[in-house]
Write a structure and sequence with these properties.
The chain is of the alpha+beta class. The protein has 17 helices and 20 strands. The longest helix has 27 residues, at about 365-390. The protein is globular and about 60 Å long. Bound molecules: beta-L-fructofuranose. Beta-L-fructofuranose binds near residues 234 and 255.
């Protein structure tokens, strides 16, 4: 059959991109059209996203995509989770807050005072993360006056189409969706005094959100639909993990965060899962992403940002990682999930302070600190893989690493060594591929009734994977 095309908008916490995805018989390809930086912006009232700039880049990227490939059939949008914009009178009221903003600490207290965490977990299945939307809403001034609160991908879709929806995989990260039914938890909203009226109707990946409106309709085509994908970036990434047997595979979607876990058919909301800090996020096709948020490349990218500011010059990541790989001798480890490392700024100093507390020798130079960061991330990954296996009773045989982290050879090898399992690395653009594949399937391009397994087989056929064998002596 012919090769068909869609556009994928994929927004990560450190960069965004617009891509053309081409799908045909034995063909699954991405063409990068636009890439733009992203990150927290400090304002007088806290950390925000520069959403207006992001939206400008998205529109420009989409225009360019349609110039290059006028046959694009639809647009899919995914981004990081939990954050939202308030909309009133059809307009975005203010730049959305960044989830790393510290205001949520008060929200945690307020919510848990009314609904204890153990009950919250039974209802929403989510690992405790202080930035989950439910805690943000609890300290959000404008939420009562707004017409709608739209999660970031839903906000982009609203600006493109005028339609207000809440895509279900991303909605599952708010803490306001019931893990057992997948519907808004109206009783919880009521008990927290939060207005259900700002939450749009839920839709599933594969459904049409609406068609492109306004000025853009000329450039992008007046009938071009926005199709809901797994709009939580991690949900799209998990679609494109080339697992051949989901029952024996763990995955790590590694970018800013490392999302480490397994796929389940039904939620696992036990005391043990709660105490271990495991989440049950909604996946595409009703699957459950049973995983743990582990601090990922954030620790490294924030360190590099500090060093680049000191030097007034860019740092070459491959050279830094080579130097880190060459470091010999004892490597001090720290808890990658230490909450003191979650805000932006001064990362090398803060890591040094955390290390000093453990009595470990603080690495002398950048190469040694980089090594310590990578090994500490790998150690946290290995912990999470082991715990996922224990909690689910699964005998895990392989660890897939997808996303930007799959290019980090030091991290992949360290993860193999510390889990004692082979690591299969790739694809690096899993999120965009998952976005593209869910659109392609909605158009009927993947055959009738294509399952996630069919989509994953397509990824496995079209992307070369790198295999890292565990080195027994390094465990
Ligand atoms: C990864 C991710 C994680 C989510 C975090 C914050 O990009 O979406 O899944 O916990 O960002 O939204």
């Amino acid at each position: 059959g012919a090769t068909r095309a869609v556009a994928a908008v994929d927004l990560g916490a450190t960069s965004g991109r617009v891509m053309i995805g081409r799908v045909g018989d034995g063909i699954l390809e991405l063409e990068s059209v636009a890439r733009f930086p992203n990150g927290p912006v400090a304002g007088p009232d806290g950390l925000h996203w520069d959403f207006s700039a992001l939206y400008g880049h998205i529109v420009e990227g989409l225009r360019e995509a349609f110039r290059r490939e006028p046959g694009i059939t639809s647009i899919g949008i995914d981004s990081w989770a939990v954050d939202y914009g308030l909309v009133s009178g059809g307009r975005l009221v203010a730049e959305p807050f960044h989830y790393r903003d510290e205001r949520t600490a008060d929200g945690v207290e307020r919510v848990h005072a009314r609904v204890p965490f153990a009950e919250l977990y039974r209802r929403n299945g989510l690992q405790f993360l202080p930035f989950n939307t439910v805690y943000q809403f609890a300290v959000e001034e404008g939420v009562d006056d707004a017409d709608a609160a739209l999660l970031i991908p839903d906000l982009v879709a609203f600006l493109l189409t005028g339609r207000r929806v809440a895509e279900r995989t991303n909605a599952s990260t708010t803490g306001l969706v019931r893990v057992d039914t997948g519907e808004w938890d109206l009783d919880l909203l009521d008990r927290l005094g939060l207005p259900a009226s700002v939450l749009p109707g839920l839709i599933d990946p594969g459904e049409v959100v609406g068609t492109v409106q306004g000025d853009l309709a000329d450039a992008l085509g007046a009938t071009t639909p926005v199709i809901a994908v797994g709009s939580h970036d991690t949900a799209s990434a998990v679609v494109a993990v080339p697992m051949t047997d989901a029952a024996t595979a763990a995955y790590i979607s590694c970018g800013t965060w490392g999302l480490v876990g397994v796929e389940l058919d039904a939620p696992l909301v036990t005391d043990a899962a709660r105490e271990a800090g495991f989440t049950n996020e909604g996946g595409v096709d009703g699957r459950i992403r049973f995983l743990q948020n582990v601090a990922g490349l954030w620790l490294l990218s924030e360190s590099i940002r500090a060093w680049e500011a000191d030097d007034g010059a860019a740092i070459d990541l491959p050279s830094l990682l080579d130097a880190a790989a060459a470091v010999t001798g004892e490597v001090a480890l720290f808890d990658a999930n230490d909450p003191r490392l979650s805000a932006p700024g001064d990362m090398p100093e803060r890591i040094a302070a955390v290390l000093a507390e453990t009595g470990a020798a603080v690495p002398r130079d950048r190469a040694a600190l980089t090594r310590s960061i990578v090994e500490s991330i790998a150690a946290a990954f290995a912990d999470a893989v082991r715990t996922a296996g224990e909690l689910t009773g699964r005998a895990l045989e392989v660890v897939h690493i997808v996303g930007g982290g799959s290019l980090n050879r030091l991290l992949c090898q360290a993860t193999a060594d510390r889990t004692g399992l082979p690591v299969l690395a790739g694809p690096v653009e899993a999120t965009a591929l998952g976005n593209v594949l869910v659109q392609a399937r909605a158009h009927g391009w993947c055959g009738p009734d294509a399952t996630l397994e069919d989509l994953r087989a397509r990824v496995a056929e079209s992307v070369p994977l790198e295999r890292y064998a565990p080195r027994g002596d390094a465990r």
